[in-house]
Specification:
With 503 residues, this protein is mostly beta strands. Among the domains are: 150 residues, no CATH class; 150 residues, no CATH class. Helices cover 2% and strands 34% of the residues. It contains two helices and 51 strands. The protein has a 26-stranded mixed beta sheet, with no helix packed on it. The chain is rod-shaped. The protein starts with a helix and ends with a strand. It is found in: Secreted.
């Protein structure tokens, strides 16, 4: 008989090495039988091994030694001791509180709520839609099967969602979070966190700190937040919004959208047709494989399109733009830019500023825009050693320098321009089978303002240079009988108005 004067009504306290509760009966002061059935027991116990029943148990563990607690089936509520406890919730929707020690808590099947406290706890949700909260120690949270919610707490925690549509929040500390299979939402919180989405269409947010984010397979959304973050999309059409900080972004396979903020960022689009906006700062961007669109933003940026037909815009700053392989379109924007078309039939636009432009291989269009620009149509350099197909050069406003290879056409525009016919055009020993009309065409030469230079082999100078007028009012320049240039409207041009320079 239990005296309720000491223990109250409906509470039983037992201490033993092993206790299994089935039906427990006690008497009140009048001797009337009272019972605690195995459906909804309220049990206040202490001891190294505790077993619940196949009912809804309420357990408070306050022993000075660590305990093994097996609650069995039912919707159980447990408060563990301040020692190192091992707790099994099993079937049912359990509410398990780990206590102050380094506890191991397994919710088992059911929609469980597991809470760590001061120690380094291991919380395992098991099957079902579980809620796991880490507490103050360095905790490990494993959601298991089901749509779980995991919150890491204050220390450096490890969170694994498992299968299902999981929500993970790292909280304070340098946390490691992995969503597992399913469409997960993962937030690092404060600290230098590592986030992995794995399979599924995941949402990753780094938060404050220098974070590492990996989307894995699927169409992921990745937000870096503050700090110098590193983000990898994996396979799929991913979207990156990196925020402030000096970030590194790798799009990998898929048609990705990448947006970075302030800071000197590094971006690689990877395979696929990517859209990249790099924001403020001196950024380095590689479009890589695919037909990419790059908006470099303000700052002195370095951008390479890579393989594919790319569109690149430099904006403000002294940018270095390269189209790579493919038929590319490049805009320097404001600033003194360096623009190279690379392989393919490219279109280069310098914009405002004193720009350096080279078409490379292919039939290219070079338009200098405003400023004193240098336009090179003669392959990769001004010497004609590497020659592309016939190019079109337009200087625009300013005192421009236009360097012509075989078959090129040049218009200087406003300003005192210099037209340079390279040795690759003037040397009869150099032949280019890709260009049918080997001479160049100059459309607006003004001898009172512009300069025309013929580069010749200094070791083997030509024997004869002659100029003849055509019935249409043009001037044709021949070197040793070979046509090297036609000057539109240049009838009356004399040899003393041409500079001959050995190279």
């Amino acid at each position: 008989m239990i005296d309720p004067t000491f223990y109250g009504n409906g509470a039983l306290m037992l201490a033993a090495l092993a206790i299994a509760f089935l039906d427990v009966n006690f008497l009140d002061e009048a001797g009337k039988a009272l019972g605690l059935k195995d459906d909804d027991d309220e049990i206040d116990t202490s001891g190294p091994i505790i077993e619940g029943t196949d009912g809804d148990d309420l357990v408070f563990s306050d022993e000075d030694i660590g305990q093994n607690i097996d609650l069995k089936a039912g919707d159980d509520i447990l408060q563990a001791s301040f020692r190192d406890d091992t707790i099994f919730g099993r079937e049912g929707d359990d509410d398990l509180n780990a206590g102050g020690g380094a506890d191991s808590v397994n919710g088992g099947a059911g929609a469980d709520t597991l809470r760590g406290q001061d120690g380094a706890d291991l919380l395992v949700g098991g099957a079902g839609d579980d809620s796991l909260v880490g507490g103050a120690g360095q905790d490990a949270l494993v959601g298991g099967a089901g749509d779980d919610i995991l919150s890491g707490g204050l220390a450096n925690d490890v969170l694994q969602g498992g299968g299902g549509l999981d929500i993970l929040f790292g909280g304070s500390g340098d946390d490691a979070l992995s969503g597992g299979r399913g469409d997960d939402e993962i937030s690092g919180g404060d600290g230098d966190d590592t986030l992995a989405g794995d399979e599924g269409d995941d949402i990753l947010g780094g938060g404050a700190g220098d974070d590492i984010l990996s989307g894995g397979d699927g169409d992921d959304v990745i937000a870096g937040g503050g700090g110098a973050d590193s983000a990898t999309g994996g396979d799929g059409d991913d979207r990156f919004d990196m925020g402030g900080g000096e970030d590194e972004v790798f799009g990998d396979a898929g048609d990705d959208t990448i947006v970075t903020g302030g800071g000197a960022d590094g971006v690689s689009g990877g395979k696929g047709d990517d859209l990249i906006r790099s924001g403020d700062g001196a950024d380095t961007v590689l479009g890589d494989e695919g037909e990419d669109t790059v908006f470099a933003g303000t700052g002195d940026d370095i951008v390479s399109g890579g393989l594919g037909d790319d569109l690149i815009r430099g904006d403000a700053g002294a940018d270095t733009l390269s189209g790579g392989e493919g038929d590319d379109m490049l805009f320097g924007g404001a600033g003194n830019d360096e623009i190279a078309g690379g392989e393919g039939d490219d279109a280069l636009y310098g914009g405002a500023g004193d720009d350096q432009m080279a078409g490379g291989d292919g039939s290219d269009l070079l338009a200098g825009g405003k400023g004193d620009d240098t336009l090179i149509g003669a392959g990769d350099d001004a010497d004609g050693d590497v020659r592309g197909a016939a190019d079109t050069l337009k200087g625009g406003e300013g005192d421009d320098r236009l360097v012509l290879g075989r078959g090129d056409e040049a218009t200087g525009g406003a300003g005192a321009d210099t037209f340079v016919v390279t040795e690759g055009v003037t040397d009869p020993l150099i032949d280019d089978p890709d260009v049918a009309n080997e001479g160049v065409t100059i459309t607006d030469f003004d001898p009172d303002e512009d300069t025309l230079t013929l580069e010749v082999d200094a070791d083997n100078p030509p024997d004869d240079i002659e100029i003849e007028d055509t019935p249409g009012g043009d001037a044709v320049i021949r070197v040793d009988g070979r046509i090297v240039a036609t000057v539109k409207g240049g009838a009356g041009l004399t040899e003393d108005q041409i500079e001959i320079r050995g190279v």
